[in-house]
Known about the structure:
By secondary structure, the chain is mainly beta. It is built from five helices and 28 strands. It has a 22-stranded antiparallel β-barrel.
Amino acid sequence: MKRIVSILFILFLLIELKGQTVSETLIGKVSFISSQNVYVKFKSTSGISAGDTLFISAGDKLLPVLVVNSLSSFSCLCRSISDQIIPVDHIIIARVRMPESKSPSAAPAAVALAASSVKQSVTDSVNQQTKRIQNTHSVQGSISLHSYSDFSNTGVPSSQRFRYTLSLKASNISGSKFSIESYISFRHKAGEWQEVSNDIFSALKIYNLAVRYDFNKSTSLSIGRRINPRISSMGTMDGIQFEKSINKFSFGLLAGSRPDYQNYSVNFSLFQYGAYLAVTTGKEGKNSESSLAYVEQTNNFKTDRRFLYFQHSNTFIKNLYFLGTMELDLYKLENDIPKSTIDLTGTYLSLSYRLTRKISLSGSYDARKNVMYYETYKTYVDRILENELRQGYRIYGNWRFANNMVIGLQSGYRFLKSDPHPSKNFYGYFTYTHVPGINMSATVSATYLESNFVNSKIAGLNLLKDFPGGKIQAGLGYHYVNNTLPESKSDVIQHIGEFNLYWQFAGKMSLSVNYEGTFEAVNSYNRIYLQLRRRF
């Protein structure tokens, strides 16, 4: 194992890119998140196809996070392929391949500005376009009110939850070297305010709140809570982070603490510190970054964990993207005696390849620990599906065999030693965009899941339509679920219906409505989600 890890490290650090990608970049935003789908809104989806991968920008690289299931003129209905938490209003990036006869100089002004030189990488182009948008509006963000209502005929009391979020990003405030970024939410349940009074952090969740000072283009210092894109899988950190870049090399120092694992508050007893070195290349469409970090984590200032963290992203050849992370633990307690060790404790590998303009293939290997989500609103079945898909192998692909028709397949296999039996899953879908007569996008899907807790067969249909003007978007969905409980050998049949509505009005105001109903032979469960958002 040590030899394999060493070889992988050397290969990653010595990889030389030879591909070249010429593409346009389309910037969109997450407009709505339901229990099963993520909706992304663009000024126009021209050039985007069902099956395409959408990205977010993380530092100097792009991370694949969503796959388009279906789309209309202005919106995409997507499925998550990442463990990244993507809030509403988060910037989403689509890479649209340019026709061979079209040169970069002929691209629209926004894209031309983002790719002012053919020698710049796609990621640099995206970063420049994003900066242009931010400079047009010195402060970007939103404030929103969310309401979750649950009620059923089971006799269980109905529940009402509220959440308020503030998202803010201000770069080079008033032309200064200071920038601020934040994402904060406050949530509480009706009738249970005492819990909030007892512990404010049971309701207040600060996911991001940091101030950055840029000494110059190559040196920066940030203070507060943030995720470092160089070592993103480590998660959020409270403290000070310093970075200095010299040509292709960047090194950084960090010192602070991990958020409290119970309520996500600041906990200085979970002190940690470390350093990292990153190497970045990017020219003529080539893009690569490798980061190596050493981190010491403590609990009550006693060593809790000591490890090496490695992250690498790369576009080996044209239309291919690779992302990999590894963690090697260097410390352990054995019979309360500290010992040095070398254990591979976390590995994630992801490879995405567009074989042709109509065929895309992707695969991933995940051996990381499950992540605790504090905000994501999931149903019971969703949580089971998410956990079963979390670790193991996953492969998926899609084929756009006609202009308006796409077939996609996904399969996964999980093999935790703690499970009595491996878990298997299979997912397939067929999408027909712009269905004649109704001008809607339709997606038919099927899922098969075999796990230790439940065996599920799920069939579904989703419809998505944008109305003229792009201000109103509506969707309908139905899923038939057959859950078999292995222990009792009993079947639970469920019919799940979903309705979504998004309405943008008064310029920067928007209203989202989502209803989800689950109907069984005797019981029925209903959920209503409302969101009112004001962008600024």
